[in-house]
Write a structure and sequence with these properties.
The chain has about 200 residues and is mostly helical. It is about 55% helix and about 5% strand. It has eight helices and four strands, in the order αββαβαααααβα. The strands form two sheets. Strands 1-2 form a two-stranded antiparallel ribbon. Strands 3-4 form a two-stranded parallel ribbon. Helix 3 packs across helix 7 and helix 4 packs antiparallel against helix 6. The radius of gyration is 21 Å and the shape is elongated.
């Protein structure tokens, strides 16, 4: 999940339907309270789209934990399914609300492509806009995912459903498998060190 109190999601439409974000200081306090309640014996999964969530920033130590995690789960979701979810999530807010957000694309896409998307919205065609938003962000997300990371730490999980419980189970299984592997590697290193001392 996104850290508690973060408010808007990371996408250009993420603010729709959300309460105003807290100040950065208030957000850090909310996050600290939530963090203190976590069970250290259980896995904690945090979404990594960068150090910012809308207008607030993650505390540097928290973001460092995210970027140095021994397991990075990449959900490989079919594009059509992601578009369905985006349309179901943001479509109900209507073309007017989406148009205000799409106007922010100009700096990234240029006037011509942005105007094309606005025409789609004016004609009531929301899906092409949701699809373009996904394509627009996929490139930067892919770069961010791999930047300064050990690629062996990234585990891809194929997802063919929007059922959150099914996806959560798959993620938990991947984490348990990685934990077993890391524990075995640690034992092997310890045994090798003991053998070296004995020799």
């Amino acid at each position: 999940p996104r850290p508690a109190g973060g408010g808007p999601r990371g996408s250009v439409f993420g603010h729709l339907g959300e309460q105003p974000q807290p100040t950065s200081e208030h957000f850090r306090n909310l996050l600290a309270c939530e963090w203190a309640e976590l069970d250290p014996e259980r896995f904690v999964f945090l979404e990594d789209e960068g150090p910012r969530i809308g207008e607030v920033c993650l505390p540097a130590p928290t973001y460092k934990c995210i970027r140095t995690a021994q397991l990075v789960v990449h959900l490989d979701v079919p594009f059509a399914l992601r578009a369905d979810r985006s349309l179901a999530t943001y479509g109900p807010y209507g073309a007017g609300a989406l148009s205000e957000s799409v106007a922010c694309f100009r700096g990234r896409m240029g006037d011509q492509r942005t105007d094309e998307l606005l025409r789609h919205l004016a004609d009531g065609e929301l899906r092409p806009v949701c699809e373009e938003a996904l394509r627009n962000y996929d490139k930067s997300y892919e770069h961010h995912l791999r930047k300064n990371r050990n690629l062996d730490d990234i585990v891809a999980i194929t997802v063919d459903t929007l059922d959150s419980a099914v996806v959560a189970n798959a993620v938990e299984e991947a984490a348990a498998t990685r934990e077993t592997l890391v524990s075995a590697e640690s034992r092997d290193r310890a045994d090798s060190a003991d053998e070296g001392l004995a020799g």
